[in-house]
Amino acid sequence: MNEARVRRPSAAAALVVLLAAAPATMVVWAADDPPPIRRGHLGVPAADGSSPAAARPPKSGRPGLVERLSNREFDEKQVEVAVKAEIAARTQAGVFTWRDPRTGTDLKLKFDQIKVVRGMRDHGWFPNVIFRDVADPKKQYAIDFWLRPEGDRLRLMDIRVQKGPRRDGDGWVMVTRLPVAWWWLPVSEHPGDTEVVRAWQVMSAIHRHVAETTRDGVYPLKDDKTGETLPTEFVEIHQPVRRLKGSGKYFACTDFRRAGSRDEYYDIDFWLDERNGKVSVGSVRVHKVPIHEDGQWQQVPRYDFKGLDAETVQ
To answer: How many CA atoms lie within 13 A of 40 on its CB side?
Structure first.
């Protein structure tokens, strides 16, 4: 885990570094160098007064090429407008209160700045936002907002901590939280379209399924053994992702917490099918269930993977 203090780069420096590291399916630019606002998106009326056009992430005429910033159809400034609106809607008396899925605790934060906006073709937008702890402003968080185009607006899919505070002498530093969200994984890949399904694509399909099924923070988990529907909260996706050599199915383990609890965790396996290069969730199975023994919650497996001929997906 690398430690890094918050340092806002110049627009030019941030753009050069981020584009150099970005994969072919990603467009990245610095939030402190916004382009002119294009009217007709996110509720901003077009010049002729017509309804907003459909919002969508950048597309490329030639798959695998980084979209030229001058040609993108939805600019970074409008993504900023959307994420600021989401933050404002969750802020009362200047305090942004948000339940951290990993820890199950409510964070009370104050908005500082939008550090960077990243877009991934076919997946949406990922503004990275800096917040400060209300009680101790030296404690900073870098938080990702996942937004997907939906008609004439951007729909908030999820919020995740990318970096959190860790004590460093008399101060604090921000350190990357592991495992990193799937939308950061393509940054390390070689540019160009991949010929095989990558682990981050499988993870994104799981996350999208969960986000689209979740209502008011609760994912209705159907227990495949008992038939009971359990109210749960999505925590994270495990790595590695695996693929069955025979059927070609992909699967990954995930953590869910019973809604409202702190220590009652379920290990859930998602099985996915691939069709025409796209992966989608096919079935969901409860792998481990929480059992209360000796005054604490423990996970007890229902099955194992012995004899399963599978390979790790990179």
So the answer is: 10
Cα dist from 116 to 28, 57, 102, 123, whole Å:
8, 15, 23, 17
Residue 133 one-letter amino acid: D
Nearest to 204 by CA among 281, 133, 142: 281
Contact 208, 122 (CB under 8 A): no
Asked if 266 and 258 touch (Cβ cutoff 8 Å), the reply is yes
Structure tokens at 76: 């970074």
**CA 203 to CA 212: how far, in whole Å?**
14
What's the pTM value of the predicted model, to 2 decimals? 0.77
Quick one: pLDDT at residue 121? Answer: 87
Q: How far from each other are the two terminal CA atoms of the chain, in whole angstroms?
A: 20
Please state, in angstroms and rounded to a whole number, the distance separating the CA atoms of residues 150 and 229. 28
pLDDT for 305? 92
- Cα-based torsion angle of the residue sequence 119, 123, 125, 130 in order, rounded to the nearest 10 degrees: -100
pLDDT digits (tens, 9 = 90+) for 5-47: 333 333 333 333 333 344 333 444 333 333 332 323 333 333 3
- Two tokens, residue 67: 């979209």
Read off the pLDDT of residues 211-229 as tens digits, 9 standing for 90 and up: 999 999 999 999 999 999 9
Q: Which two tokens stand for residue 141?
A: 């968080």
96, 87 contact by CB (below 8 A): yes
Quote the radius of gyration of the chain (alpha carbons, Å). 21
- Helix then strand then coil, in percent of the chain rounded to 5, is 15, 45, 40
Rounded to 5°, angle at Cα 178 from 85 and 243: 105
